[in-house]
Design a protein that fits this description.
Elements lengths: L2 H4 L3 H20 L24 H12 L2
């Protein structure tokens, strides 16, 4: 099926788009899931490489909420 012929009909375009969404869903669902994903994460750091503390997170949230 050529893409130029797909968009001549609205219904064919919808079917084509549904196929693309189905493919994306199928590929994303086949990714391996890890139960220990949170244990393997590194500690977040700022631009200088210093670790981000919970106080820094709270300050950031306050600033963002104040906007």
């Amino acid at each position: 099926m050529r893409t130029s012929s797909v968009f001549k009909s609205r219904w064919m375009a919808l079917i084509w788009a549904a196929g693309i969404l189905w493919l994306a869903w199928d590929v994303a669902a086949s990714a391996p899931h890890s139960d220990t994903a949170s244990a393997n994460t590194e500690q977040a750091t700022d631009v200088t490489g210093a670790p981000i503390s919970t106080d820094d997170e709270k300050k950031f949230a306050e600033i963002v909420n104040g906007l």
